[in-house]
Amino acid sequence: DTGVSQDPRHKITKRGQNVTFRCDPISEHNRLYWYRQTLGQGPEFLTYFQNEAQLEKSRLLSDRFSAERPKGSFSTLEIQRTEQGDSAMYLCASSSSLAGGHLSTDTQYFGPGTRLTVL
Amino acid sequence: AQTVTQSQPEMSVQEAETVTLSCTYDTSESNYYLFWYKQPPSRQMILVIRQEAYKQQNATENRFSVNFQKAAKSFSLKISDSQLGDTAMYFCAFIYTGNQFYFGTGTSLTVIP
To answer: How many Cβ pairs within 8 Å bridge chains A and B?
Structure first.
């Protein structure tokens, strides 16, 4: 399967613990995005990478959140000192850009998501 | 601030019939892009159709078409000849040069056999 994969699919943690999620994009895709989706809402943009560079971060991405894409391939999203309000589905997507192309020209391919429950 | 509003939380349509999902947005930007995404139950989200704001012609992809009214800031999705596989959540989304995507709250569409 060459689609976007995310690991784990489900994570249950206690408040105050740290969690880390992984996203493996489609191999030839240079752009990678993270979103958060809560019940009854649409996805909320968190951040995006072009290769290994983090080019945009939403105000939603508080200091407790950090994302990396060290080699321009897979990405990790870490949440420190989790809170109950962090419970959500965390979605990853990837796309392949033309050189200098605007994000709108890309078709984003989404992964299945990681469902986080903070007790 | 950019906002996307989908005022129909749930809709249903008989198989083979046509249904229209509404979306309105608010922005002061002049150059932006609009999308409809589909999220089937327990499956990944996929792009249905996109529209560039500078294009007057409405986008069409097979059974899916949009009615883009820039002055009214309206971007509705029409699904013709509805099929059972069209049952899903549909999200309207917006991006401008700020490189952030904004999604609506979604419309749950059920196609009835």
So the answer is: 51
